[in-house]
Design brief:
mainly alpha
Amino acid sequence: MKGGRIVDQELLMKQIVEQVMQSMKNSGAVPAPDASASGRITAENYPLSENMADKIKTPTGKPFNSLSYEKVISGDITADDMRISPETLEMQAQVAESVNREAFAGNLRRAAELISVPDDRLLEIYNALRPYRSGKQELLDIASELEQKYGARTAAALVREAADVYEQRGRLKKF
């Protein structure tokens, strides 16, 4: 039954990928306007995958509408193509702002900045930001790295703020 199990797994994988792709693609909704009169994306454009799919690109520049199960299986689409782009996160941030969710918009913008940071480095930074894991200078060095190497100014500011707060509250690493 080993061969049957492989076929079942392939069929299941195809079904899962097709469901994900379908949920991401335009479901026949009436297109919303490209943007508000101010040129900003608003809640009227949400969900972007339905209302602005033609404006969304993968981080590698492939059009969102070009994503398909067949291209995943053939290798034409890679894991990098399935990630969100900084531009799409900015569009989502504008939607959040249009419904007065400024804090969420800020989180989306920080996430957009961090896309260029390798995943393993992000995990190291996350762990360094836990209380008692880093000294103040280590956190300041991380902030400088984020700003200078990756252009992540708002994320760098957040790390600097954390360094100051940890210092005030006695949460820095004890050497």
